[in-house]
Here is the input.
Amino acid sequence: MSKTINILNSRISNNDDKSTLTFDLKIGDNNHSLYFSVDKKYGEYLCGEIADGVLTILLPFAVKNNYDIVSAIPVSEELLYNFNWHFLPQVAVCNKIDIPQIKIETVKTDYKPFAVSTGISCGVDSFTTLKEYTVECKYDDYKLTHLAFFENGAHHLGINGFSEEQKKCYEEQKEFVLKFCEQYNYEVVIVESNINEVLSKAFENDAFEHTHTFRNIGIVLQMQKLFKIYYYSSAWNLDVFNVDITRSPARYEKYLFSILTTKNTRIYSSNKAMTRLEKTEYILDFEQSYDNLLVCYMGGHNCGKCGKCIRTMITLDMLGKLELYKNSFDVEYYKKNKPIILSRIYAKKHFDPFMKELHKYAKSTGYKIPLFSKVLGMVLFVGLAIKRALHI
Ligand SMILES: [Zn+2]
Here is the structure.
């Protein structure tokens, strides 16, 4: 007999400055309360009468862990139709697994939302979408009106699952983003949530990267009264399309967005078909990014040492524009340690598609990588290959 996720009830509570939507859940034998909390001025846009977002957040976990889903709160008809008629049959075929039963009543909703939004982390994806839909896109109805910042597990410090320390990282990055939005006069919607804590406790430390799309768009769909259009920047294009429910949705999310679109809220993939390197190149003339680029998952400044910092600094260096970002990165540290930092390309180009792209770009442009970096990288590669083979 399969296990059950039960969405039991929902309630909205208000205090002086916050409105909070809470869902009580029973996952297997355990009870959880999942909340979404916003500034009071956005409280009227929380949708407590539908469970579209909660269903979206929980769906990949139900599939992977063999749970059925029942709910006392209905969901939008088009969302359940999209899941049951389109997405789940494809998931079953692509993953050769049984799909969950979803036993939930449907409702027809017509909220007339108005916000055109995207997430703002101040990373490369954010600035690419920001430039695209404030400067480049000439279609009025598609220009950004609001930015969004969600507590969804993205501020994970490189840890799978939940840790109290992640809250500090979230708070630091929120302050960074708020300062940026104030400087450039962007309206930003902050949604605080215990999504990561609930999911980590219920499903044993699943990696954020494996469900990021469902978590982000789940929050958007729980606020369908506000969000008319929401842009999400994909890491991958459809040339690597693959519906593998156990890995990152980034390889199939350009398809998934049509599934997660309802009568109220339309989800689009932003950044056309740009690669990571092309996105970085795209923002080089977008001055807002120079002093405000934050790519790190370790806190409120770029640590310069994690994988995301390293690959971004190398990319900017290859493009000849690292100096433009001297207030975002420790450029002197990079210059001093460049031969060691560049060794990462050779250490990881066989595992990491971003490093593979940088290697290809270096070859095509004649960017000089010292012999020392190549040799060190190859030694590191052997170590990594052995570790992967031994699963350590
Ligand atoms: Zn970092």
